[in-house]
Design a protein that fits this description.
It comes from Buchnera aphidicola. It is a single chain. The protein is about 40% helix and about 15% strand. The chain is α/β, with parallel strands linked by helices and about 250 residues long. β3, α4 and β4 form a beta-alpha-beta unit.
């Protein structure tokens, strides 16, 4: 797999987002339309991930966060969950060389303790191997939930206060953010959701309070550079006020 391709003829506007987060929805429906099992859709979805990474690199997006497996996905049929985890492990095993080749730093956020030892080991190893890569940060949300993230952050802060590492009166939003999975990363500028649904689904609840949202009916396996471009151009056309009033 290569992460480079011929640049698009139509250039993007200059004010592109630095951190894009994507809720990759629609793999199962994509497979159903083709009379295939849902696992077939997830495999096709992996190809869309590769295209998305290519585009992010080409357009100098600094952080790309992908919602690959939510904490609620365990409620799906066991066969589908098993196929998702197997696909995740396959990607880790087969893409590490390309991650290094194209200077990509891989991070995985979420409660990883529930995964089997083999998967955990590969996650930690690939993170370590790509740690010093200075290009795109590819942030994978696996067994992740926004509420879980916030609760874990609260627990860490309580522990810090109890051990007198932190003064409770000095806790501000910036301090709290340092106790979340995304600490050290750029703020999320743009959230894209495919598949036609218009909800957040417990994704980065704290982090996307002022992110721009972009929804598309396109199912994830059909997501491509042109749709990604449309999302970024839409972002570029918006006036981000962050609660303020912009004077003429």
């Amino acid at each position: 797999m290569l992460y480079q391709y011929t640049p698009l003829k139509k250039k993007l506007k200059k004010n592109t987002p630095r951190h894009v987060a994507i809720i990759m929805d629609g793999n199962g429906r994509w497979a159903k339309k083709r009379n295939e099992i849902r696992a077939f859709g997830h495999q096709a979805g992996l190809k869309a991930v590769k295209k998305t990474v290519k585009f992010a690199i080409q357009n100098k997006i600094e952080v790309l966060t992908l919602y690959t497996f939510s904490s609620e996905n365990w409620q799906r049929p066991k066969f589908e969950v098993a196929s998702l985890l197997k696909l995740f492990l396959f990607a880790l095993k087969n893409e590490v060389k390309n991650l290094n080749k194209y200077n990509i730093c891989l991070k995985v956020i979420g409660d990883l303790t529930v995964f089997n030892e083999e998967l955990q080991s590969y996650i930690y190893n690939v993170e370590k191997i790509t740690l010093n890569n200075s290009g795109l940060i590819l942030n994978i949300a696996a067994n992740y939930g926004g509420r879980w993230d916030i609760l874990e952050g609260v627990k860490k802060i309580v522990n810090a206060v109890q051990n007198r590492y932190l003064d409770i009166n000095k806790i501000k939003e910036t301090i709290f953010s340092q106790y979340l999975c995304t600490h050290g990363l750029l703020p999320v500028d743009l959230v894209i959701r495919t598949g036609g649904e218009k909800r957040i689904s417990n994704f980065l609840l704290w982090q996307i309070a002022y992110s721009e949202l972009y929804f598309t009916d396109v199912l994830w396996p059909d997501f491509n550079k042109f749709i990604f471009q449309d999302a970024i151009n839409c972002f570029s056309s918006r006036e981000r006020r962050f609660g303020r009033i912009i004077k003429d």
